Automatic annotation (TrEMBL):
Signal peptide interval: none
Family, as annotated: Belongs to the class-II aminoacyl-tRNA synthetase family.
Cofactor(s) it depends on: Zn(2+)
GO cellular component labels: cytoplasm
Name this protein carries in UniProt: Alanine--tRNA ligase
Catalytically driven reaction(s): tRNA(Ala) + L-alanine + ATP = L-alanyl-tRNA(Ala) + AMP + diphosphate
Major place of residence: cytoplasm
Enzyme Commission numbers on file: 6.1.1.7
Role, per record: Catalyzes the attachment of alanine to tRNA(Ala) in a two-step reaction: alanine is first activated by ATP to form Ala-AMP and then transferred to the acceptor end of tRNA(Ala). Also edits incorrectly charged Ser-tRNA(Ala) and Gly-tRNA(Ala) via its editing domain.
Comment on bound cofactor: Binds 1 zinc ion per subunit.
Organism taxonomic ancestry: Bacteria, Pseudomonadati, Bacteroidota, Flavobacteriia, Flavobacteriales
Length: 480
């Protein structure tokens, strides 16, 4: 089954259950001060869950573009190292706004997975919230437990703690217990050795969570207390790439047709082969993952920049560029060449990729060019700093220099150091960063009279560029 078919079947199934199919919201959040990027399917429906507005349709289903690289859900460190966490991924979902609740949500999820997709029932495990004895003192979700017990043998129902089985959107907002569905795709021999139940939520690459059914019944207030929501709702999220992995009978998301065209293209460009050694594989996975995050964000209007969400995108791309440079031997822009392939595989479901194709390609190429122009020098500097370091910790001032002069985002420097078994003096870095900010504030106060940093003024004489951060050039003019 192709990934296109997997997606279509999901939406068709819920259409058949009287859900309205809606498009994905943008991956970049524009009007929610608590979130930079959409990190779950429910984000766009938050106001319905809070009761602040009412949905015209009580049942909705879609596939949502998500990004988990900042804030509460940050999977960046896992990406590439494991085979089932991405920065950008699609979350398939179905929602009930004050309509059906646990019974239908559970029964339909089971029906879709086992009757429609024909996943082997014996490979599935489900989890139920066990309750908590903290300040919230919540009871076990007996209702969900009983509903599952009617469908699956009891030894396939796992009790889960608050971390895994109580879903919260953020520090505030709608929340509630959840039931997750996990799938065990290990070989028969492996299964015979160790029971899958003991591997659920243990970061096993072949015993993975695919679907989370959240039963929203509370709202967490600013003071931390829970209150009952005026109406109960269902919010489900299924990882599309993981589902494709299961249905396509492969052992990694990267072996599904969502990723293989990108990986083949990286192989063609770099001459490296995927599946030969771990270091190369991680780099190929990282690049094939990161281009998706970057391309979808640009398509939704978020260009790489030096602040806020734009800097998150720049950091992701620079991370990818450096993986290519160090592990795939690329010293010329190449990631931009994946945009075309991405458009071909995903453009039907997400037309914005095709519509914005040229812009995305240009922006990525320009970013690659500018970072590559300082990357090598920066790496040489970092190497010499490492060699001269005595206590396995790198001076924050040096990390600042890498950031300021060579455009190394601080998490990239940390990542490289970590690979080599070194640590970073984060405090020292922050001190240097603050000192620079203070300096430039003071400088800009003084320089107002002499320098203007803007174009389109005939009364100015061009006097040159000033490189600030790797590729950020301030065009300087003298007033005449
Ligand atoms: P995990 O425990 O694997 O990190 P999660 O519990 O954080 O997943 P949820 O917030 O429950 O994930 O999201 C719903 C579904 O989205 C998950 O069941 C999973 O299939 C998928 N998912 C979550 N995070 C990612 C990711 N980083 N990449 C791909 N799919 C993901
Ligand atoms: Mg997670
Ligand atoms: Mg989980
Ligand atoms: Mg989950």
């Amino acid at each position: 089954m192709t990934s296109q078919e997997v997606r279509a079947q999901f939406l068709d199934f819920f259409k058949g259950k009287k859900h309205k199919i809606v498009p994905s919201a943008p991956i970049v959040m524009k009007d929610d001060p608590t979130l930079m990027f959409t990190n779950a399917g429910m984000n766009q429906f938050k106001e319905f869950f809070l009761g602040n507005s009412i949905s015209k349709s009580k049942r909705i289903s879609d596939t949502q573009k998500c990004l988990r690289v900042s804030g509460k859900h940050n999977d960046l460190e896992e990406v590439g190292k494991d085979t089932y966490h991405h920065t950008m991924f699609e979350m398939l979902g179905n929602w009930s706004f004050g309509d059906y609740f646990k019974k239908e949500a559970i029964q339909w999820a089971w029906e879709l997975l086992t009757d429609v997709y024909k996943i082997d029932k014996d490979s599935l495990y489900v989890s139920v919230f066990e309750g908590s004895d903290d300040a919230d003192s919540l009871k076990m979700d007996k209702e969900a437990f009983d509903l599952w017990k009617a469908i699956v043998p009891e030894d396939r129902i796992i009790m889960g703690n608050k971390k895994d089985n109580f879903w919260e959107m953020g520090d505030q907002g709608p929340c509630g217990p959840c039931s997750e569905i996990h799938v065990d795709i290990r070989s028969k021999e492996e299964k015979a050795k160790v029971t899958g139940a003991s591997l659920v939520n243990q970061d096993h690459p072949q015993v993975v969570e695919i679907w989370n059914l959240v039963f929203m019944q509370y709202n967490r207030k600013a003071n931390g207390q829970l209150e009952n929501l005026p109406e109960k709702h269902v919010d489900t999220g299924m990882g599309f790439e993981r589902l494709c992995m299961v249905l396509q009978g492969v052992k990694s998301n990267y072996d599904t047709d969502v990723f293989t065209p990108l990986i083949r293209e990286i192989e063609t460009i770099t001459g490296r082969k995927y599946g030969k050694d771990e270091e190369t594989d991680i780099a190929i996975r990282v690049v094939s993952d990161h281009i998706r995050a970057v391309a979808f964000s640009i398509a939704d209007g978020q260009l790489p920049s030096n602040t806020g969400a734009g800097y998150v995108i720049r950091r992701i791309l620079r991370r990818g560029i450096r993986y290519g440079f160090t592990f795939l031997g690329t010293n010329k822009p190449f990631i931009y060449r994946l945009v075309k392939v991405l458009g071909e595989t995903m453009g039907k479901a997400f037309p914005e990729l095709r519509e914005q194709y040229q812009l995305i390609e240009n922006v990525v190429k320009e970013e690659e060019n500018s970072f590559l122009s300082t990357l090598e020098q920066g790496l040489v500097l970092l190497d010499s700093v490492i060699k001269s370091s005595k206590n396995k910790t790198i001076d924050g001032q040096k990390a600042f220099e890498l950031y300021d002069t060579f455009g190394f985002p601080i998490d990239l420097t940390s990542l490289i150091l970590e690979e080599k078994g070194y640590k970073l003096d984060v405090e020292g870095f922050e001190k240097a960063l603050k000192a620079q900010k203070d300096r430039s504030r003071a400088a800009s106060e003084v320089s107002k009279e002499d320098w203007v940093v803007l174009l389109e003024d005939a009364e100015q004489e061009f006097i040159g560029y000033d490189t600030l951060e790797a590729n950020v050039k301030l065009v300087k003019y003298r007033k005449v």
